[in-house]
Known about the structure:
With about 150 residues, this protein is of the alpha+beta class. It has one domain (about 1-145): Deoxyribonuclease I, Chain A (4-Layer Sandwich). The chain contains two helices and nine strands. The chain has helices at about 60-75, 100-115; strands at about 1-5, 15, 20-30, 35-40, 45-55, 80-85, 115-120, 125-130, 135-145. Strand 5 (about 45-55), helix 1 (about 60-75) and strand 6 (about 80-85) form a beta-alpha-beta unit. It is globular, with a radius of gyration of 16 Å. The relative contact order is 0.14.
Amino acid sequence: MDYVGSVGIAGGVVSMWDPSVFEAEESQKDVNFLLIRGRLKGSGEKINVMNVYAPQSSASKAILWSKIEGLVNAHQGMWLIMGDFNVVRVPEERRNSVFKAGQARVFNEFIHNSGLIEYGMKDRQFTCSRDNGRKLMGRRMCFLPKSSNLFVAG
């Protein structure tokens, strides 16, 4: 287990894993993510697991996407990036709140430039709703690199 503590009222992230399946070799912490690099036991394949809690501001998100893209391009192995990105990719994913086209464009460019694909995690189980006078919907997302066969059923 490893974690990044909360800052003010903003989140913090915790990552846990089964040591009989995954052997952690090193971690990298940032205020908005926790990256655990290691190997899958049995295969020895390198895997990078990143847990993200993205900031609210557009400028801060763009900086975060750039950092993550740099890490994805710098480290070999499979990538699993998951968490709360505080952004949606298309207007249909946003309900009862404002879709921010600029944020979506920058986020979609980051996904494309990093060679990631979205793992389909939708519906109530993977969304956030808050009732403070209005309902907001935002998805928790999970991305894998295009070359990954980690979760392919055979």
